[in-house]
Design goal:
The protein is an alpha/beta fold. It has twelve helices and ten strands. It has helices spanning about 75-85, 115-130, 150-160, 175-180, 180-190, 200-205, 215-230, 250-255, 260-265, 270-275, 290-305, 325-335, and strands at about 10-20, 30-40, 50-55, 90-95, 110, 115, 140-145, 165-170, 275-285, 310-315. The strands form two sheets. Strands 1-2-4-3-7-8-9-10 form an eight-stranded mixed β-sheet, with helices on both faces. The protein is globular and about 65 Å long. Pfam families: Esterase (PF00756).
């Protein structure tokens, strides 16, 4: 396992895309975004059109991290290339950036962060179809991600079945009473140092190197997801619990629950039943109980009418982190099932 970059059998193009929808976003984040597009071996040798698989990241993930190399593991841009070099049917693979100042967008439209769902669906998909030889049809388009990216991969085809007909979710955020609520108590304890004011923590976070205090990951996720799911009219994040007592704020918490894929599924049953392929997996010791969430989402997908033969489900021995070796497995599975 070489500790330096390997050669590609296909080609990875690195672009910058100017977004109209992200211009003037509430956090002042850049409206010019990096976009990576991979084409498989043989793409340049003819005029064949290819299915497309869109790849989105977990919370605090940004595009350049797809090329990060850890000891004894290749980055996903290389293991994805190996999928096609080893004989899987070719696909265009699109790596999308949805970073915000809070570390993520949850791939939704929100007055607290910006129009990232519309950016993905209404700007990036058409841009890719215009510049690459894709098959511009939902039967030939999939989306995949892990954690918050897995959440995005679950909800995007439900909301836009006209664009996406297949998905893969690895430990995607779901069943919120298990994956989010445990952090609320930890947040209350952490906020005692900030007079129970998450904005005071946010101000402190910017005065020092990030993640130098143990509460940083929990509070960053809570302020960011609140900005996505429960912003005030002016965009200020509203926590779904009282920061002093931890008691749930029912009206705010309900706004979070409305984004739970398990709870969304019944309202999107017709779309789910039409999906060409659905991959769901998670580690059996996932720290956020996303293996339980995966079980719940699978049950709802089947209840919605998806034929069992279109569904792949697996729980494997792992926690939430370091499961990047799962990504090429679902990519190869999707490549076999997308229409050509």
């Amino acid at each position: 396992m070489l500790p330096w970059d390997g050669d590609f059998a296909g080609r990875l193009d690195r672009h910058t895309v100017e977004s109209t929808l992200l211009r003037g976003n509430p956090l002042g984040d850049p409206h010019e975004r990096p976009l990576w597009v991979y084409v498989p071996p043989g793409y340049d040798d003819g005029d064949e059109r290819y299915p497309a698989v869109y790849v989105i990241q977990g919370y605090t993930g940004h595009l350049a991290m797809w090329a990060n190399r850890t000891p004894f593991r290749r980055p996903f841009v290389e293991t994805a290339d190996a999928v096609f070099a080893n004989g899987a049917p070719g696909c265009v693979v699109v790596y999308v950036d949805a970073w915000t100042a809070y570390g993520g967008s949850q791939f939704v439209d929100s007055p607290g962060t910006g129009r990232y769902h519309s950016y993905l669906c209404d700007e990036i998909v058409p841009w890719v179809d215009e510049h690459y030889r894709t098959i511009p049809d939902r039967e030939s388009r999939a989306i995949t991600g892990k954690s918050s990216g897995g959440f995005g991969a679950m909800i995007t085809p439900m909301l836009r079945p006209d664009l996406f007909g297949a998905l893969a979710t690895h430990a995607g955020d779901s069943l919120y009473e298990l994956c989010y609520v445990p952090d609320f108590g930890a947040a209350v304890r952490a906020l005692r140092k900030y007079d129970q004011d998450i904005q005071a923590w946010w101000a402190d976070f910017h005065t020092r190197p990030a993640f130098t205090k143990p509460e940083d990951p929990t509070l960053l996720q809570l302020i960011g997801v609140s900005a996505c799911f429960s912003p005030a009219p002016d965009g200020t994040p509203e926590l779904p619990f009282d920061p002093a007592t931890g008691v749930l704020r029912p009206e705010v918490w309900q706004r979070w629950l409305a984004w739970d894929p398990v709870r969304m599924a019944p309202d999107h049953a017709e779309a789910i039943a039409s999906f060409r392929a659905v991959w769901i997996d998670a580690g059996t010791s996932d720290e956020y109980y996303l293996d339980v969430g995966a079980e719940a989402f699978r049950a709802e997908v089947l209840k919605a009418g998806l034929p069992a033969e279109r569904l792949y489900f697996e729980l494997f021995d792992a926690g939430h982190g370091a499961i990047d070796y799962r990504y090429p497995l679902s990519l190869a599975w999707l490549a076999e099932r997308l229409a050509r």
